[in-house]
Amino acid sequence: MARPAVNIADLRDAAKKRLPRAVFDYLEGTADDGVTGRDNLGAFAEVKFQPRQAVMTTPDLSTCVLGVELAVPFMPGPVGYCRLLHPRGDYAAAAAAQRLGTGYVVATGAGTAMEEVARENDKTFYQVYKIGGRACAERAIARAQALGLKGLFLTIDTPVSGNRERDPRNGMAALMGTKWLPKLPYVPEIMSHPRWLARFVLDGGSPSMPNVCDENGRALPSPDVANALAGANILWDDLSWIRKLWSGPIVVKGVMTVGDARRALDKGADGIVVSNHGGRQLDCVAGTLRVLPGIAEAVKGRCAIFLDSGIRRGSDIAKGLCLGADAVLLGRAYAYGLAATGDAGVTRALEILRADLLRTMKLLGAATVMDLRPELVRVPAGFRVD
Q: At a CB cut-off of 8 Å and minimum separation 6, what does 345 contact?
């Protein structure tokens, strides 16, 4: 009998055992030498807590972001192609988030239609790329508007796919493609994971992208990541075009400087995500927690501030909120659970993080999310980079 997962690292270990190398490395991989990926994690370790003692309390984890009531100050963010991890993919993530009382951001590159995801979670948001061109994006935004989704997350940090060297080594493009001959060199590794392979085949193989449809409603076939993202990035000038199509909140994801944070506000954004894409894009940029305080100081109170990249514990969430975030987005932290055991794994990941955060707030003497303030942490020099 498998031991129960007590932290996110346990779920990661389980995911590694259950996935073929190509799929696990797609999930785990970072750009180039992985400097930024490591710094995302390392930055959290450098921030130390300064608790208020002898303040017995039962913390309230609820918050309101972009007008949406959340039972916890975190939600699963967009992870493309997560049906490769498990056929339940976006269904499982959205449903687990709903049970916890929080939202879900469905990816442009999801293998599940936003309509189906929205049935699982009434606090669903939609991530926007221009995959397939402006016309495809307009159709997707119109669908999101008709569904009453809670907001759009516009990802701006992906003009090209990052140099994730594990993917070509492992044949990720071949796995995602429709031709079988290029897959042959990687068959032994895939065959060594028969349970994953059976689920993959029964699910129809590489999933299409049902949120990217042509004028006839046909979903875009699932290309490799680099081809999908070529020319799909959102530009600053696109915000005015999108605002004409969309009446709800708009959040700009991929902000790493004060200048870009201010520009997002000037262009009409209602929120930003301080994010380096989990270290998967440009290597050797700072961990997100390092730049968060400077960005929060510049725009706090003028827009919603989310943080992502490197979050593995509830204490990481607490540190992000102390340094200026209103909420955080999860990526690998819940994807490991999805890959490990599907619905149960995502649920377990979110439960772990909720319990971690609750315990951390009790030990800090913080009664509410609003009590997570800068005076509860000690921050080393270099954490206010502009």
A: 5, 11, 14, 15, 86, 92, 336, 337, 338, 339
**Burial (0-12, 13-18, 19+ Cβ within 10 Å), 298:** middle
**Among the listed residues 171, 204, 239, the one whose alpha carbon sits nearest the alpha carbon of residue 84:** 204
Give, in degrees to the nearest 5, the angle at Cα 156 between 219 and 234.
55
| CA distance to 56, 96, 172, 272, 384, per residue, from 319 (Å) | 20, 24, 35, 18, 14
Q: Which are the contacts of 297, defined by CB distance < 8 A and separation ≥ 6?
A: 324, 384
We report the CATH number of the domain holding residue 248 as 3.20.20.70
The neighbouring-strand residues paired with 307 are: 274, 328
pLDDT number for residue 1: 41
288, 38 contact by CB (below 8 A): no
Phi, psi of 105 (to 5 degrees): -110, 110
Q: What would the two tokens of residue 175 be? A: 């796995």
Q: Give the range of the structural domain holding residue 130, as residue numbers without chain letter.
A: 8-166+207-378
Taking alpha carbons only, the member of 179, 30, 15, 135 closest to residue 84 is: 15
CA distances from 65 to 46, 75, 141, 322, 366 (A): 27, 11, 21, 16, 19
60 within domain boundaries? yes
Strand order in the sheet with 74-76: 74-76, 327-330, 304-307, 271-274, 250-255, 152-155, 124-128, 104-106
Q: Which pTM was predicted?
A: 0.94
Which pLDDT belongs to residue 2?
64
Q: Which residues are catalytic?
A: 277
Residue 260 within a domain: yes
Confirm whether 188 is domain-assigned: no
Phi, psi values for residue 293, rounded to 5°:
-60, -40
Distances (CA, A) of 130 to 17, 75, 76, 133: 35, 24, 22, 5
Q: Tell me the pLDDT tens digit for each residue of 292-324.
A: 999 999 999 999 999 999 999 999 999 999 999
Contact between residue 129 and residue 109 where contact means Cβ atoms under 8 Å apart: yes
Are the beta carbons of 345 and 333 closer than 8 angstroms? Answer: no
DSSP 187: H
Q: Is residue 265 part of a domain?
A: yes
How many distinct structural domains can be found in the chain?
1
Contacts of 144 (CB under 8 A, 6+ apart): 114, 126, 152, 246
Rounded distance between C-alpha atoms, residue 30 and residue 167, angstroms: 10
